[in-house]
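Q: My hope is that you can spare some time for a protein that puzzles me. Underneath my words sits a plain record pairing an amino acid chain with its backbone structure tokens. Those tokens are not coordinates but codes from a learned vocabulary of shapes. Thank you; the sequence and its tokens follow:
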Amino acid sequence: MRVFVSATSIVSGGSLNILKQFILNCKSSVDFIIAINSKLELEPEYTNKTNVSFIKVVENSRLDRVKWDFFKAKKEISKLEGDVCLVISLQNTTLNVGEIRQMVYVHQGLFLHETSWNPLVANERKYAFYKYIYPQFIFAFSKSNTQFIVQTEWMRNALINKYRVPKYNVFNFKPEIVPWSDKELLSVDTNNDELTLFYPATGEVFKNHLLLLESIKLLSHKYSLLNKSLNLKATFTLDVNPEINTHIHNYLEENPSVRQFCEFTGPISYDQVKSYYDSCDVVTFSSSIESFGLPLLEAAMLGKHVLSLDTGFAKEVLKGYEGVDFIEDDPSLWAEHLNQLLENGISHNPRFVPKYQTSWYDFFELM
């Protein structure tokens, strides 16, 4: 059995984790040919598998991606010796590969979420593209036997209900998360008198950093009226300036007193992320749109107290974990929860061991 895998736009982030997990879990009885980005350098543990070979593809723009999906992938497959009986796309979109059956791993959730975006507003234009135009590429070459794989039930339901994909063609398979060993964790120095928050997220609008910042502002005002010092430090893994994450920059310009309670590290390595996880008191997660929400699970697997926006995906990912507070989209409620933690201390929870019913094994059985 020969399987062709499309992963040409994957170079970093959550999608790279998916690609690596895919390779590690590949069935040894199947030959996989994986098309990857020419800039991607994989470690030997991924490239030394005898039944997995790689094709490097130059892809530097959206136009390159469209060309790949619409005709270059099919051309590449035609060059291969032997028949390809299945094409797997790990990057959301179907491909023009004739009658070959396809499986599509969907990890872009913007087009499935109910939130509307205005293409005339500069900082919403990108989201409007993914919401209103990108679905045309996702389903461009979908057929009656095309199967879609997602990571959460809300995405499965949205594909079925909004895009009329048959139930029997949509599957919710969870990614594999390996617990970190203690030797992988190296704490960051923190002030023991402070309540330390950590929010590992990019600066996308739907990550709702302003919700957290506004809650800190409200709490600071309350403490000021009581003539008390607010001992709190929130760490965010992003840059803030007039060109980058402008909405956050503008908020801080209008509310300069909030900045004293914040640290903006800029993008950091995964090892540094682990260190902040280990050192912080609380992991916050105010994002409203996620295909999975990995930081939620990583925090719980370390037994950290979690403050999360009250979303379906967060409740699904952390089902059974007692160390999480689900809070509505209201900064006064977030301020109230932060105040309770300051007054009552942090709960110490057993490390969470997720018991998901599906895994990569189910994915490969579907082939």
Summary: Residues 62-78 form the longest helix (17 residues). The two ends are 10 Å apart (CA to CA). The chain has a mean pLDDT of 92. The chain is about 35% helix and 15% strand.
